[in-house]
Amino acid sequence: MNIKTGFIVALLGAFFFYQCSPAEGGEESGLQADVIVYGGTSAAVTAAVQVVKMGKSVIIVSPDKHLGGLSSGGLGWTDTGNKTVIGGLAREFYHKMYNHYQTAEAWKWQTQEEYGNKGQGNRASDGAQRTMWIFEPSVAEKAFDAFISENEITVYREEWLDREKGVEKEAGNIVAITTLSGKTYRGKQFIDATYEGDLMAAAGVSYHVGREASTTYAEEWNGVQTGVLHHDHYFKVPTDPYKIPGDPSSGLLPRISAEDPGEKGAGDHRIQAYCFRMCLSNHPDNRVPFPKPEGYDSSQYDLLARVFESGWDELFRKFDLIPNRKTDTNNHGPFSTDNIGMNYDYPEASYERRKEIIKEHEQYQKGLMYFLANDPRMPADVQEQVNQWGLAKDEFVDNGNWPHQLYIREARRMVGDYVMTQHEVLVEEPVEQSIGMGSYTMDSHNVQRYIKPDGYVQNEGDLGVKAKQPYRIHLGTLLPKKEECTNLTVPVAVSSSHIAYGSIRMEPVFMILGQSAATVAVQAIEKGTAVQEVSYAELRKQLLADGQILEYSKAKVQ
After folding, report:
1. In this structure, are 382 and 511 located in the same domain?
2. What is the C-alpha separation between 377 and 383, in angstroms, rounded?
3. Residue in 409, 408, 397 with CA at minimum distance from that of residue 444
4. 88-125 pLDDT per residue, tens
5. Residue 104 domain flag
6. What mean pLDDT comes out for the span 331-336?
7. Last residue in a domain, options 352, 368, 392
8. What is residue 345's DSSP assignment?
9. Which candidate, 88, 98, 6, places its Cα nearest to that of 53?
């Protein structure tokens, strides 16, 4: 082979390698990076971006087809709390949202003037990094994909961890993970950025599912909360739970539990209700009428009919308006989009069982909307308003306009190096090693619907306990116990109690923790140490340099 021919062959070889890079299913030897991020959430993206910015290689192994989790899955009405403590890559994401909505092309179904300046914020320090906290799902997904392309991050989508035998460990370190497709990914550090904590669990790290007893961490707001009524998500008027009112022998209406709710303060296996954050439209050219789902059964909503019979009229209170005449529609009231009590086995369930649970939630919620729009028991004026809405035609276009992400409000929670409790959230206990801040209310949705001693139905578990001020999140919440794993960080299924997680679980905080977890991982690589041995002083210096907010200053403005 002469020099010219060899040069051409080399060029062709390089071209072939580029075309078949790992992101497109390339060589098995390419499935290796300094850091492997497992998950497709917003935290997964910010973690991967931070790894690249710190000069290391990264692969995202995502069980999801779409990146961004809830932030691109319908939750466009962001739960922010105090916006001044949202910095770093999280704020950069919301800056991308702002920039998008400053363009004429962003406004297809209404004018910018018509929508106004809802959801906009400012950055106190220089006034330049403007933000938008309310946005459409498709816009968010494009921003996450932009993060990926701008940083040339390799992503394998729809790759599911083999939870039975897919984690290889040596001397306390994860060496590799293998997915159900047979691909193996090797790295020096691993990040579990899933809502479920699947990698954490498969790696043998301790975790908890359900509510701890109030005595476990001396918390007032943990455990069963019978008799405690917060927000507006409870039955305000005595409502009969029986098929024949007043006749227990007739049986309970659907979606009411006959189980004893438990003693106040007791721990249990129950978790916050899940729902889909629907994106609805009331523009005639962008509205898909609510479809009648397969297997629709109007009796599933008999209890809702009784709620309306009682005079309840708050249906549209959480049709939160996002740009272009769309909504982020959330749960509101005693019987709404939250599918109470139907998710208890989800955190530990097999993939097949989880798919069944997700499908049941979809059928329930589609049936709910069809019921509201069509059942003759609905008040005429309410039904008329409901029928002005429908699924947004230009959202979730590859999934029948239905959100691709179920709202997993909580699943597993790691029991790690440090456990955040209500005491840290309420700033009753000092947090010395801050890696980010939270500020949102300790917000738990209902976990069960039960029969009270007086024979009427009630919901239980809904709480809204306001944080006094922004609070620090401890480094140890990201870290497993050293004896369990030394090269894993967990920024979503973090080490916290049920009620503390009710505040931490907000999407901006997940982005913040994803960035911080990646910083820990890279510094552990650079120093050749366990993640538990990373110098906090050096970590803090890097986090501050990268725009993370670690302390609260009242001098800042939003």
Report:
1. no
2. 10
3. 409
4. 999 999 999 999 999 999 999 999 999 998 888 755 44
5. yes
6. 97
7. 392
8. T
9. 88
- Tell me how far apart the alpha carbons of residues 381 and 492 are, in angstroms, rounded to a whole number: 42
Q: Which of 333, 358, 392 is the last residue of a domain?
A: 392
Q: Is residue 431 part of a domain?
A: no
Task: Tell whether pTM > 0.90.
Answer: yes
Listed residue (222, 228, 227) closest to 265, CA to CA: 222
What would the pLDDT profile of 286-300 be if each residue is shown by its tens digit? 999 999 999 999 999
Concatenated DSSP letters of 114-125? HHTTTTEE--TT
User: Residue 356 belongs to what domain range?
Assistant: 280-295+309-392
CA torsion 409→415→421→425, rounded to 10°? -70
Host H or E run for residue 103: none
Show Cβ contacts of residue 546 under 8 Å, excluding neighbours closer than 6 positions. 50, 53, 88, 89, 515, 519
Strands 390-392 and 287-288: antiparallel
Residue 528 structure tokens? 């050749």
Task: Give me the number of domains the chain comprises.
Answer: 2
Clarify whether residues 53 and 172 are in a common domain: yes
532 Cβ contact list (under 8 Å, min separation 6): 417, 479, 482, 486
Rounded to whole angstroms, how far apart are CA atoms 553 and 54? 28
CB atoms within 10 A of CB 467: 19
d(CA 435, CA 549): 8
Mean pLDDT of 24-53: 86
Mention every residue, 6+ apart, whose C-beta is less than 8 A from residue 513.
43, 435, 436, 473, 477, 478, 491, 492, 494
